[in-house]
Amino acid sequence: GLVIDGRTLEHVLDDSLQNIFLELTEKCRAVVCCQATPLQKSVLVRLVRNKLKAMTLAVGDGANDVSMIQVADTGVGILGQEGMQAVMASDFAVSQFRHLEKLLLVHGHWCYTRLTNMVLYFFYKNVAYVNLLFWYQFFCGFSGTSMTDYWILILFNLLFTSVPPIIYGVLDKDVSAEILLQLPQLYMMSQ
């Protein structure tokens, strides 16, 4: 692990030492930056995001964390005693730090699997419809006539675009929350 304070971080974030610092952080399992200014926090997140091409998550509970939350790919605001600024600037909000584990491991896993399945579903829905139009053109001799009325097309898209995602989003949970909390490795395996 690496623990670095704000004064040292000021020197490390200089252009000449950034690459050396990033090489050192890659060898660590945990890096803790304490007593850092809001600008240092956002510069550090931007540095990791741009140079290491890593997905970044910023967690903060006050106004001094807003710039860091906004720079990160995903920002989580914790409703704290310092006010609502971090919560208002974040993508997700939790009331206490202990809820972060469930947000990441359980809801993150479920969201990831739902999104991937929905992308596949919409792709195949559109392939089926375009395939139908393609074969209809052979039937009508490429005359450009409409295969269906417009209201049927609207009904098809309304039905197959709204109902299955709602049902899938509400009912689908591939793994229970208890198992996901017991086996954090499942989050990486789903990706």
From TrEMBL:
| An individual GO BP term | phospholipid translocation
**Origin organism lineage:** Eukaryota, Metazoa, Chordata, Craniata, Vertebrata
Boundaries of every P-type ATPase C-terminal domain copy: 87-191
| Taxonomic superkingdom | Eukaryota
UniProt membrane topology term? Multi-pass membrane protein
Q: Which organism is it from?
A: Cochlearius cochlearius
Name-wise, this protein is AT10D ATPase
Subcellular location(s) per record: Membrane
Alphabetically list the UniProt keywords.
Magnesium, Membrane, Metal-binding, Transmembrane, Transmembrane helix
| InterPro entries cross-referenced by the UniProt entry | ATPase_P-typ_TM_dom_sf, HAD-like_sf, HAD_sf, P_typ_ATPase, P_typ_ATPase_c
The membrane-spanning stretches of this chain are 119-138, 150-171
Instruction: Provide a Gene Ontology MF annotation, just one.
Output: ATP binding
Encoding gene (name): Atp10d_1
Q: What is its main location?
A: membrane
Gene Ontology cellular component list: plasma membrane
